[in-house]
Amino acid sequence: MTLERHFLGWDEPVVTCVRRFLVGDGVPDPDALAGLLLLVPTQQSGRRLRQSLSSYGAAHNVHLGYVRPRLPIDLVRYPSADIKVASPMESMALWTRLLLDTDYSRLTSLFPSREEQHQFGWALATSRLLQHLRHELAATGLTIRRVATDFAETLEEPQRWAELASLEQAYLDLLEATGLVDAGESQLQQANSPHVSEGTTRIIVACAPDADPIALHALSRLAEDYTVQVLIHAPEHMADRFDEWGRPIPAAWLDAVIDIPDVANNLRLASTPADQSRMATTILAEDTFGPLDIGIGVPNTEVISFLSAEMQNAGMNTYNPEGKPVASHPLFVLLERYKGIVDDGFYKAIASFFRHPDILDHLQQNRNLNTRRLLTDLDEYQNLHLPSDLRSFLKDLDTDERSSRPADAPFPALATAVDYLRQEVILSDSTAPVASMLAFLRSTFTHRRLSADNAVDAEFVLVAHQLVDILTGYEESCIPELNLGSDNIRTLLIETLRATRYDLPRVGTAIDLEGWLELHWNDAPFVIVTGMNEGNVPEDVSHDPFLPDSLRRQLGLRTDAHRLARDTYIMQALVESRRNAGRACFIAGKIASTGNPLKPSRLLFTCTDNDLPLRAGKLFGTPESHVLNYAATTSFLLRPSPPVDLPAERHDIRSLSVTAFKDYLTCPFRFYLKRILRMESLDDHKSEMDAMDFGSLIHDVLRRMGETEDMRSTTDTRALARFLHGEADRWMATRFGSPLPLNLRMQLDAAHERLTAVARAHAADIADGWEIILVESSIEATIEGLHVHGRIDRGDRHRETRQLRVLDYKTSDTAKPPEKEHLKSPTEDMPDYAGVVIKGKGRQWADLQLPLYVAMLTEQNPHGALTTPGYFNIPGTIDNTGIQLWDEFNDDVLESARQCAHGIVSDILSRKFWPPSTRVQYDDFETLFHVEPDRCIDTASFNSYMEKNA
Fold first, then answer.
1. Which of 11, 668, 767, 942 is the most exposed place for a label (fewest CB within 10 A)?
2. Exposure of 222 by Cβ count < 10 A (0-12 exposed, 13-18 middle, 19+ buried)?
3. What CA–CA distance (Å, rounded) separates 200 from 654?
4. Are residues 563 and 542 in contact, defined by beta-carbon separation less than 8 angstroms?
5. Which of 446, 378, 388 is nearest to 418 (CA)?
6. What are the pLDDT digits (tens) for 353-379?
7. Contact 834, 845 (CB under 8 A)
8. Residue 643 pairs with which residues in a beta bridge?
């Protein structure tokens, strides 16, 4: 075997060293690259070497001919034309079919679960796991069958591996029946008899510190006929640290020392990925290197988006040679949501589908549907009816079943969208999933016109081509013969598409954001590496369920020790190649964007004992800079002044509900947001009845009781309970349909329990001589010229004493006395009118609902006795169910409440909506105020509004 090692030194970047070895330093020989098979570690390294050779030849006016660097694995990747290798999608489909049909009673060591039926999702995920295992083994020239037989004596779980081997053989038999060859098996065959292009006279392996063993096996075969030269980017005195193929020997790198020049400036600690990006951009701005002299490493891909944005803001374009995952593109998301609609039909899938920008655009263009109205309808419909699936939508909103126009529906925009769903999506031909998917896409994008000059459109075209290739590959594959089912085929297509990437075209001068292995071949004099944390460098692969590190060592696979040696070598090469002319700077993160703590890479501690305390103190200390990531809502001041299109009658309130006084007493500013701007949170995340819904249920049922003569006056507890239960059932069926899902059924059962307790309390009350005289009675008054209105839940009168009481139903979890809900301890900023003295003790009004009811009733009957206010408590603890009166309520308390109401009305009419309360209980606007409200508001403009016409 003719195998030569050549040490190039590492005083210069690897590209320069390899270029010099290939063509020298003088005027190059035009035939210097003739007959050369050049192998490089990555695609990006091949591009950089091609550029370097082309530039060098052009500088000397010499055409060096075309050389196409290849990867070592390419030697075994491409079989002869007469062999048809299964595509990754075909392999996954065949594995999945096999796993769905397997008798698991024979595989109890591998699959100990006694699950009777294995579903498609499980089979697909397991297929991915098994193919990954086979890929890992094939890279070293192994198969599962060989592991099970050759290593049977030393394996810890030989029976498990024997069962894996039987599955592998069954998979290969299934492949053979389809006329296909497995990619891994093909590579093993090619490794034993590799072929090179005609005219090849020599082979160079250029600085590939991590080539796959199967490729090296093929090279050793080729070395019998060709001279194979192995180039190593390191000085020759380190020859004993590399094997014959230029791979770092793990044991030889344990004592390595990476001497980072100027540690204070070149070893940095930042907090979050955003902070790392800001730090990298700041360092670049402070130095004198231009864009072409800069290299940036991002071994942690989480940093890429932050870094791209920061550098864009600084006027520097970036480019990711790794491309982007198709799964990040809206077209993929659309297909994923389409599948959710067709195959699942649950509410979450429907909502996600309607919220997709392309669907909204389609409905606007083709159905003249207002996007804002549709989304509002969707939220309101969900909050009202809590639909669980598509059937609920079609039952309530399908215009075909209703025999009416969408405009006549209670939610017209949503009804139109559901009509589109039924006609153009749901009724597609489910027996032809690919054709249906393409028809859906054509329909969705009929109105869209693409421009080659538009970056968004250009990216759309790239992803569309990927999609078409996969769909075409499906049609031409063996998969249609596997009888997987339309829903499963859609899943397979989506998952295949999820695993693909696409390359964006490079626009203008841009700085590459490169991975760790690619960075070694970057010849920029200034290199910054972000994300220098454990798990990124060295990469953590210890989670493999079949190949723990101990078994990897046994089988001759790459281990953690190999990765550590390789990455130690690469880091030292990055430093040494720039020691004389350039700079290498390393940034570690303190925490991930999720908030989880990060550990600095162990490579940063490969130093002398004397340097270790300095590095440890720096990397485990406080980050140099940390900018708080405030939410977007507080990154600018909010301007709450009314918009110009707000109707004039909304600026100055002319009518106010009794319950609104509590809002003003809680916080004048939040009162303004709620009652004047009418702001409210609206989404479709509701999964069950909230407190307001539950209260509405109880109130409506008790209203029906009060309106039914024989029920409101009965003392028969059982009869009343049956009536109340029936009314609750009716209310729930009307609101949410039938049958009820489990969560609503449980809430209805809770309502039954409370209503049973109400029946007992009410029957006892009737027996004591009370009778209902008011039910859901509207009441109104005028205060300072402002119309005030309310609705009394219930008014009672004692048949003998003629005593009156006004009651408000309360369904809170715990029973509360009315005085505790209406009064609180005084605060420093309490307005004078809000103060009241109860039994010689100063208190502050927190609510005026019951006192204002009494005041309004008193105005209607000024000569009657004082009405006593109270709560009919209907709490979760049913033993506390019953009426609780405000026994200490008297004329003085009533007068204080009147004065407080007048003061509030006066402030409202004077537009006094400031200052806000710092903290309130059950804050509807907490998402707006992540810090104190007065730090989030443009107070100058708001004060101007309040003073105008006040």
1. 767
2. buried
3. 92
4. no
5. 378
6. 999 999 999 999 999 999 999 999 999
7. yes
8. none
pLDDT in tens, 610-657: 999 999 999 999 998 655 544 444 557 788 888 888 777 777 788 999
Q: Which residues, 6 or more positions from 214, have their beta carbon under 8 angstroms from its beta carbon? A: 73, 76, 138, 139, 140, 141, 187, 188, 191
Q: How are beta strands 835-838 and 823-824 bridged, if at all? A: unpaired
CA pseudo-torsion sign 80, 82, 83, 84: positive
Sheet of 294-297, strand order: 267-270, 583-589, 526-529, 294-297, 511-514, 318-319
Alpha helices in 356-432 (DSSP H): 357-367, 371-385, 390-397, 399-402, 412-420
Asked if 822 and 845 count as a contact pair (C-beta separation under 8 A), the reply is yes
Residues with Cβ within 8 Å of residue 576, at least 6 apart in sequence: 10, 11
Whether the Cβ atoms of residue 537 and residue 606 lie closer than 8 Å to each other: no
As beta bridge partners, residue 5 has 230
Separation of alpha carbons 698 and 872, rounded Å: 12
Query: Residue 568: which residues within 8 A CB-CB, separation 6 or more?
Result: 248, 253, 256, 258, 603, 606
* Rounded Cα gap, residues 149 and 555, in angstroms: 12
d(CA 33, CA 17): 16
pLDDT lower than 70: segments of the chain: 1, 114-117, 398-409, 427-431, 541-542, 625-635, 863, 949-950
Of 122, 71, 116, 69, which Cα lies nearest the Cα of 95?
122
What gap in Å lies between CA 801 and CA 806, rounded to an integer?
15
Return the structure tokens found at 256: 């390595």
Letter for the amino acid at 618?
Answer: K
Closest CA to 357 of 341, 374, 342: 374
**3-state SS class at 768:** coil
In the DSSP assignment, the letter for residue 532 is: -
Kindly report whether the peptide bond that precedes residue 915 is cis, defined as omega within 30 degrees of 0: yes
Length of the chain: 950
83: number of Cβ within 10 Å? 12
Q: Which helix (H) or strand (E) holds 244?
A: none
Fill in the amino acid letter for 681: S
Longest dimension (CA), the chain: 121
The pair of three-digit structure tokens given for residue 14, joined into one six-digit string: 């690897």
CA distance to 56, 654, 791, 830, 909, per residue, from 898 (Å): 92, 18, 18, 17, 17
The neighbouring-strand residues paired with 526 are: 294, 583
Contact 723, 701 (CB under 8 A): no
End-to-end CA distance of the chain: 97
Decide the pairing of beta strands 36-39 and 202-206. Answer: parallel
Rounded to two decimals, the pTM is 0.83
Q: What is the tally of helices (H) and strands (E) in the chain?
A: 36, 21
DSSP 8-state secondary structure symbol assigned to residue 534: T
Q: What is the b/e burial string over 5-34, where b = at least 16 CB atoms within 10 angstroms of the residue's CB?
A: bebbebebbbbbbbbeebbeeeebeeebbe
Amino acid (one-letter) located at 388: S
The neighbour count for residue 511, using CB atoms within 10 Å, is: 21
Q: What integer pLDDT is reported at residue 510 of this predicted model?
A: 83
Nearest C-alpha neighbor of 67 from the set 45, 46, 88: 46
CA distance 806 to 774: 9
In angstroms, the CA 822 to CA 845 distance is 6
DSSP for 851-887, written as a single string:
HHHHHHHHHHSTTSPPPEEEEEE--SSGGG-EEEE-T
H, E, C per residue of 44-81? HHHHHHHHHHHHHHHHCCCCCCCCCCECHHHHCCCCCC
